[in-house]
């Protein structure tokens, strides 16, 4: 490393701050279903996820290379542009965390990078082919593939487990959920931690500290892994609440199916270098698992809010990043002003979040979870759920909850009015 300027140091610190927000924003992806079904205690779950996120960061650099070498033209990028991109991504992460929406940290980062690059060097600075094939198409395909796989896996699990002993099956599904949650955490580290590695590597290339087409240095891999692990350990409890209880109510069988399906999709995408949104994959799998149980209901009002946030992520982060890049272009004082705005906005969001604290003590508390009223099964839910037989125990449960019919009076019995 030949040089390391002040602006480059600011970019690296800001990138690690984004990685930290990515960690607590996306903790729900791995552990929401495990926590909501009671397979693991909340603090144990996030600690396990943090360790596996760190391990996953060392397994591959394919996604990092997609960010640093493929999405934008390295030759036209300055460190200030990357700083502006990170500002857009961090602010979007914090806003969606505040309202408990599981939006995509990955797309926030990519949107910020695209917006800042276009504002700096024009539309030609973005490689359209990479954007379409490795970002946009996976964004659409991932939740669909994961959702269908989770729905089929849930139905298969219920079918195979009909005659299983109740206690033994419960223990087996609990172990399966813990294992599959660990797999999702590992997959998250291989995908999301690499995005920060790619951003830092791109900044080092832009600042002249690395040669073009370089892979991430070891210190970049380690620091990105530690940052996302620390953020994961703190836990994004607001989003865990939404993912675990707000979308649908999952049983252990469904949680196991959802996590296994999502982890498979994420790991396959990481191997291919796709900059996939783990949030999209896991959310799609949770909804698919919800439809996989006879009588399961997806809360489409929550899902709709989530879909809107997904659609806004790329353009919103891009607009904020473009504005930040325009201010940074005014000189050192402009960059300092953007940094002050970022710090002040982050502090303000944190202060607002203190008005209603959500943490490990109340994340699954039905009285305080803010879960929505049960929605009636709509057309989509009814159509998807009706094609499979009810799992074992559903008939008994329904019989237990239906009121018994009123007894028919015996005409021969004396009435109360004639009784002396």
Describe this structure in words.
- The chain is mostly helical and 420 residues long.
- It has one domain (6-366).
- Helix content is 70%, strand content 0%.
- It contains 15 helices and no strands.
- The chain has helices spanning 6-36, 42-56, 62-71, 79-98, 105-121, 128-160, 166-206, 218-234, 237-246, 252-272, 278-291, 300-328, 332-353, 379-385, 394-401.
- It is globular.
How confident is the prediction overall: mean pLDDT?
Answer: 77
Task: Name the assembly state.
Answer: single chain
> Strand pairing plus helix content: what structural class?
mainly alpha
The percent range for helix content is over 70%
Give the number of DSSP strands: 0
Order of helices and strands, N to C? HHHHHHHHHHHHHHH
Biggest sheet record: none
Q: What portion of the residues fall into strands of 2 or more residues?
A: under 5%
Number of domains: 1
Uncertain residue ranges: 367-402, 415-420
Q: For the CA atoms, what is the radius of gyration? A: 24 Å
- Treating each run of at least 4 consecutive H or I residues as one helix, how many helices? 15
Taking the alpha carbons of the first and last residues, their distance comes to: 105 Å
Overall geometry comes to globular
Summarize the structure.
By secondary structure, this protein is mainly α.
Key features?
0% strand; 420 residues; mainly alpha; disordered C terminus; globular
Topology, pairings included?
Blueprint: H1 6-36, H2 42-56, H3 62-71, H4 79-98, H5 105-121, H6 128-160, H7 166-206, H8 218-234, H9 237-246, H10 252-272, H11 278-291, H12 300-328, H13 332-353, H14 379-385, H15 394-401
